[in-house]
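Priority: medium. Attachment 1 of 2:
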């Protein structure tokens, strides 16, 4: 019987204290997260504004954690080199935002980064079926993007399961990530649906215990058996 992969915990820094961003990254690293996600928002694709590449670059040397850029922007193509130069080893674009998704993914690979594609809740899995050969990470949004602290959409679990089936059937080495409302009481259902990478924000920065305790609770929740 195959051993299920260990969960990968990705920290969204959207809820971080921006006045001490470097300190927050060091705390996340010490707490045991696996990667950091930078939620890049342009105020157009989503109604919020966040980080630019200079902010990411300024913090890159502080930690050894991998960085992924989640580009919630209308036209990601012109800025792709900037995110890679800033130190993001994974660049995630939204299928809804790319006029020529195949070309965009190819460009990210040319820049030397791993490719990611995100799907909003209303976007069907079919939007990425024909580019999976270029995809290193598939992100199923479990909230509508734009703001932290939203409620997890359990209605996305069949989509997660369908994505897992498709990835396995094609034989691709693709990470399946979920993002939105991931907490100790929701991560288990997402894991059972087939996700192996879990992006959490509020659940890491707030709640009982230390940040390390909260990371441990997420890992435990992702591997726990379903209870009646």
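Attachment 2 of 2:
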């Amino acid at each position: 019987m195959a051993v299920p992969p260990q969960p990968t915990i990705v920290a969204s820094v959207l809820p971080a204290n921006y006045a001490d961003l470097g300190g927050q990254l060091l705390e996340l690293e010490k707490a045991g997260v696996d990667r950091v996600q930078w939620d890049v928002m342009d105020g157009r694709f989503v109604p919020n504004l966040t980080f630019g590449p200079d902010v990411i670059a300024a913090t890159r040397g502080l930690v050894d954690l991998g960085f992924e850029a989640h580009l919630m922007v209308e036209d990601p193509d012109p800025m792709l080199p900037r995110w890679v130069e800033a130190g993001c080893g994974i660049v995630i674009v939204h299928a809804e935002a790319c006029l020529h998704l195949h070309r965009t993914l190819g460009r990210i690979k040319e820049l030397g980064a791993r490719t990611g594609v995100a799907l909003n809740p209303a976007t069907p899995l079919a939007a990425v079926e024909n580019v999976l050969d270029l995809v290193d990470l598939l992100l199923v949004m479990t909230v509508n993007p734009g703001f932290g602290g939203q409620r997890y959409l359990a209605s996305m679990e069949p989509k997660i399961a369908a994505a897992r089936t498709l990835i396995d059937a094609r034989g691709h080495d693709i990470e399946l990530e979920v993002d939105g409302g991931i907490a100790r009481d929701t991560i288990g259902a997402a894991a059972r649906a087939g996700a192996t990478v879990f992006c959490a924000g509020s659940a890491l920065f707030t709640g009982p215990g230390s940040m390390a305790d909260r990371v441990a609770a997420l890992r435990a929740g992702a591997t726990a058996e379903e209870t009646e």
